[in-house]
Amino acid sequence: MFKVDHKVLRLSFNEFHDVSDKDMPQYGEYCLLELKNGDYTAGGWHPSGNERTAKGYFLRGTADTVGSEEVARWHSLDRYDLTESLEKEGVNWINLGREEEEGDRNVQFEGFKSFCDRKRPKERQFCLLIMNDGRLAAGRWNKWRHKAGGAFIYSSARASHGSENVWAWTPLSTDKFFAMELERENEKKREKKLNRNPSTNPELFKYGTDINVYYEKALEKLRGESYWATLPMMMKKTPVWQIAPLHGKYVFGRISKNYYDNSDIVIPWTEGATSDEFIDFLCGYTRDAVKNSNPEEKFKFGTDINVYLEKAYENVKRDYRWLDKKMLENTWQYDIQRIDGDLEFVRRYRDEGEFSVYDAESAERFIKCVENDYQSAALRENKTVDSYEPRFGHIDLHGWNLERYVFSKLQTGDYKVNVTAGDRTTGGSREFFITPYCFEAKTYEEFLDRYLEIVPEHSFGLGKKELLPDKDLKKFLGY
Q: Residue 381 and residue 327: Cα distance in Å, rounded?
């Protein structure tokens, strides 16, 4: 590693280029920027249009740019390798550019810190970096959410320099993004101070500050409508309401986690002003969850899970004729268990250790879920022996583009279709079994009428206009 002590190191930048002279860097070149307001930042140059021009922007990250009209001068970071200087003992000043520049033409940076000293920037702070390979760089600090460390974001799509690749760093000027983060942190500190001794509205918390008391009182009312009601049934309606401090006062609130720092976000209840109004609200909020948990409806065929699984198996077997129970061994496993005092349908995948609750409001809904699982398992076991792709032009599917549409003939002589669509950043595929009912049609046109009920044109792109004239597809499907 380098022999220079980063704590006393100064970098001196000379030979700046003036934007007013229309002297701009190469496309994509990453530069130290002096703004017209005297601040310093960095970014990669993106000119407007194809010609060499002073108009454009410097890219710092996704939706994070600095327009050229804000920049006074720039100095390349890409053109330097400090390795030779950093490997010499006793060096505490490195000059970048012609030494004769002095005064306001010269800019120095110091106060470098290192991750080796357990130092790290503040969140969203933009920093000048010296990399482990001696290059210069810059980026906005972004700490990892679920593990130690982080990275410096420097371009679009969250392109970053990992902390493990940075030898030393020092902050550049505060910008609006970092200022917003500082304000957010200050607000958290103010909120924490206010919430040390929260006040209590006697009208709103007539029955105290134990949320279970309010749920119990709501439960008493719900049992007048649904005698089977229990607290676990009510708690299925998420998020569960809690009593929490907010701005120095206790409130009824829904609590979620902040994506960036995992802190609590409290959304207060605002639909009333008294304890009894909140209890009535809880009744309405959880009524459907309780109503849909009627054990007489959920377990109308008893509490033997095999009864439900057998019904699902027989229903699927009618169309997926090749299905046998051995094909189901490596898929979802189901059971009926008592969870928090209530019977529940539960499931686990393959060799997972624990079951999780599958919240189905009726026996029929649960059986339908199992049918979907069995259908997928059956298709996985039926190999494709031939395929055909209809030709199509550009088709917009509600913002996505149709990418692939493939008919497949299976080993058993049955057919399926796979549809893929996406945009520039994401996409997905759906697979459909073409049921024997479709092939009972006497004509190809009648077949398409039945087929398009399964794979409708408005959702998946191709209709009778495209498929009916396709003679090769007609022949592939056996018509």
A: 7
Beta-strand ranges (E) seen in 258-380 are 264-268, 332-339, 342-349, 356-357
pLDDT in tens, 178-228: 999 999 899 999 999 999 999 999 999 999 999 999 999 999 999 999 999
Strands 93-96 and 10-13: parallel
Cβ atoms of residues 17 and 24 within 8 Å: yes
Of 477, 474, 460, 476, the closest CA to residue 404 belongs to 460
Q: Could you report the per-residue pLDDT of 218-269, keeping only the tens digit for each?
A: 999 999 999 999 999 999 899 999 999 999 999 999 999 877 677 789 999 9
* CA distances (Å), origin 222, targets 60, 157, 190, 229, 348: 56, 50, 40, 7, 32
What residues contact 177, with CB distance under 8 A and at least 6 apart?
64, 124, 126, 140
CB 419 within 8 A of CB 445: no
Q: Give the Cα separation of 180 and 76 in Å (integer).
A: 28
Q: What are phi and psi of 26, to 5 degrees?
A: -70, 155
159: DSSP letter? -
d(CA 312, CA 368): 7
- Minimal CA–CA distance to 379: which of 335, 431, 330? 431
Give phi and psi for 183, each to the nearest 5: -65, -40
Residues in the chain: 479
